[in-house]
Amino acid sequence: MDRVPRALEERLTLDIAALDAEGRGVARNDEGKVVFVEGALPGETVLARRLAGKRSYDIARTIAILRESSARSVPRCPHFGTCGGCFTQHVDARTQVATKQRWLEDCLARIGKVQAQMLLAPIYGEEWGYRRRARMSARYVPGKGGALVGFRERRSTFVADIRSCDVLPPGVSALIPALRSLVSELSVRERLPQIEISAGDGATVLVFRHLQPLTERDLSLLRGFHEQTALHVWVQPGGPDTAAPLYPGDPDPLSYDLPEFGVRIGFGPVDFTQVNHSMNRALVRRVMGLLDPQPQEAIADLFCGVGNFSLPLARLGAQVIGFEAVQALVDRARRNARANDLVAQFEVADLFKSRLEAFGRFEKILIDPPREGAIGLVKAVRDDWPRRIVYVSCDPATLARDAAVLVHTKGFSLAAAGVVNMFPHTAHVESVALFER
User: Fold this and answer.
1) Per-residue pLDDT averaged across 115-131, rounded?
2) CA-CA distance, 80 to 150, in Å (whole number)?
3) Cα 255 from chain centroid?
4) Is 304 a catalytic residue?
């Protein structure tokens, strides 16, 4: 990206036609070149300053709004615009979700050359206090008065100077000033890059990642923070597998309920789980409805994690095998099955290489892959089974790529697709697609 010298920055008057996946307005300048405009909404006319550019597009930032959209909302957070944790607080909730739905449809059409026979109604949820998992950066900056704890600034590696965060649970948000003070007191303050937050239904864990050994005084300060706040404190000197409770005798405190299915899911503070528990309940409900598990029906849950979908499927009577690459997650899923008195099988498998035939024939398959999607899996799908696939995606582009394989080479139709607003005020698009043959 070519930076524009400040003396040569252009001021442009632009009519905004659309919103892109990152919450920026999309316009064209007088020469027809695409301009992505931070802080602008469809239907608005804005005065913008050009910040950077490439041959095919420019990036600009709104200076003044000359004609305002009815979808514009007053950002609730005083740090909006500087902090990179949120991108679309200036857009009302319905427009945010409609933009995500359009982005999903566009990716399916443009990348996959497919169209859903039915668009599922978007699922909304709470806009604030929803983020139960977060990886917050920490940086000791004497010139700012000590340690900063928060998200990175927008388009920067600097840590935003924040005192609260409205998308975090209120109790966690209120502790940001105390966390800043705590980090400033630690001997490893210049070698403590992040604090991972993980909140369950009844407890919250903070995982302090440190690149140097903690001193006895550091441990004393962390214990004092635990005793003062009642939050569980973990320390992590290396990779995720080194995370451990400050008090080794502490039981696993984290869990969330799926009350509609009578299931409680236990998880560790560095295990993958959805960040938005209320929307996860809605997601599980939608997936169960689309998959329509029948008693004794053989169903494979691929990338099963700690059993988020497997255990509700088992509760509904299906014969479930969950597959996951990480042994620790498989162990956790097995414990969750026992704790819920459910019969479900869990296996360790590299799902980018393994085949499922060794475990029998599956009538239906659930796929919930990471951002890179599941191209190897969908290419290996057999011609005679399954007859139904439900695909949960966190990236519409890889979903569209994989949908092209299922529809154009494997004989499936894309029966339905829609979005779940798992991350309000961000560009993240969570979606669900149903394939049938």
Assistant:
1) 95
2) 13
3) 18
4) no
The pLDDT tens digits for 18-68 are 888 778 999 999 999 999 999 999 999 999 999 888 889 999 999 999 999
Nearest CA to 173 among 157, 152, 150? 150
Distance (Å, rounded) from C-alpha 129 to C-alpha 170? 6
Among 83, 86, 304, 394, the active-site one is 394
In a 3-state reduction of DSSP, which class is residue 230? Answer: coil
CA distance 331 to 369: 19
Q: What is the pLDDT of residues 354-407, one digit of tens each?
A: 778 889 899 999 999 999 999 999 999 999 999 999 999 999 999 999 999 999
Identify the structural domains of the chain with CATH numbers, from first to last.
2-67 (2.40.50.140), 98-126+276-436 (3.40.50.150), 133-199+204-245 (2.40.50.1070)
Decide the pairing of beta strands 57-67 and 34-38: parallel
Closest to 122 (Cα-Cα) out of 313, 279, 289: 279
User: What CA–CA distance (Å, rounded) separates 274 from 289?
Assistant: 19
Q: Cα torsion for 90, 101, 49, 75, to the nearest 10°? A: 10
* Radius of gyration of the chain measured on its C-alpha atoms: 23
The maximal CA–CA distance of the chain, rounded, in angstroms, is 70
Cα distance between residue 156 and residue 159, in whole Å: 8
Dist. CA 320–CA 365, nearest whole Å: 10
For 96, left (φ over 0), alpha (ψ -120 to 50), or beta?
A: alpha
- Write out the two tokens for 156: 């920067």
- Burial of 367 (C-beta count, 10 Å sphere; 0-12/13-18/19+): buried
Determine how many CB atoms are found less than 10 A away from the CB of residue 7: 5
Task: For residue 53, list its beta bridge partners.
Answer: 2, 58
Q: Which of 396, 214, 373, 366 is nearest to 293 (CA)?
A: 366
Question: Which phi-psi region, left, alpha or beta, contains residue 298 (left: φ > 0; alpha: ψ -120 to 50)?
Answer: beta
pTM of the shown model: 0.92
Does the pLDDT of residue 12 top 50, yes or no? yes
CA distance 153 to 49: 19
In the block, tokens 């026979």 appear at 117
Cα(17)–Cα(28) distance, integer angstroms = 9
Work out the number of other CB atoms within 10 angstroms of the CB of residue 116.
19
Identify the bridge partners of residue 148 per DSSP, sorted by sequence position.
Answer: 139
Q: What pLDDT does 3 receive?
A: 52
Tokens for 204, please give them: 């919250």
